[in-house]
Amino acid sequence: xxxxxxxxxxxxxxxxxxxxxxxxxxxxxxxxxxxxxxxxxxxxxxxxxxxxxxxxxxxxxxxxxxxxxxxxxxxxxxxxxxxxxxxxxxxxxxxxxxxxxxxxxxxxxxxxxxxxxxxxxxxxxxxxxxxxxxxxxxxxxxxxxxxxxxxxxxxxxxxxxxxxxxxxxxxxxxxxxxxxxxxxxxxxxxxxxxxxxxxxxxxxxxxxxxxxxxxxxxxxxxxxxxxxxxxxxxxxxxxxxxxxxxxxxxxxxxxxxxxxxxxxxxxxxxxxxxxxxxxxxxxxxxxxxxxxxxxxxxxxxxxxxxxxxxxxxxxxxxxxxxxxx
Length: 325
Known about the structure:
Radius of gyration: 57 Å
Order of helices and strands: HHEEHHEHEHHHHHHHEE
Number of strands: 6
InterPro entries: BRO_N_domain
Protein name: Prophage antirepressor-like protein
Strand order of the largest sheet: 1-2-4-3
Shape: rod-shaped
Distance between the termini: 126 Å
């Protein structure tokens, strides 16, 4: 910082100290900045207050920044016939502070990181009080070319503050990178665990499917055994019908007309009732045969294992049932 009266015009235009470095040393952060055509710099008050640890930006501005050094974004840009920057964060009513307002907030801040900058400001004031001016030392290497601005060496306190901030930021970046690497490693472990869990689930599913198939085979075998137990013995694999009984009798013996007449009469009764207990006279009357001939036909059916005798009824009539092997 130089005396305004002795500061060359080119240095005023370009800035004796880079404004980004200056603000960085003052706040410890890179904050947003609007630079007007006249070279003045304006900063969002909310950004500066957040970096300096002020919890209530409005109160901080009222307490430490005069009205001359703060204004709304719309007023600042409108005074230079400029449009408002694009983006949601650049609202028309956004409060801005100029460089003096920023320095006032820094001087009122109690954060230890602001101490080097505040000490340098104190040194500048003391030097101006004692010697009447404060002059930056010119840099050893100056830009070449006609009309090039004079380059000044950065004040030691500001340079040291920037170095410490950069070192701190590098450390934070390294810690962040380490955290990200650890997070990636953890994510890889989680993916591996998920793959193992998936493999286990697939193996479990395969075992369960095998068990289901085995149980299905056991159930089928059980059903087969139960069906065999429930199937009535004899030449029939299913419940007999009159048609199946007559067909089976045709295969067992040479059926004559008389035998067939008796078979047609007794087969439905044996299938429906399970036994035949009619007197021979009743069968003879239904077939038109003699009682003696009916008896001979029944004997032939017994001899060829078509029917079986099961004693007699109370009225003395013989009882016949289907033959069972």
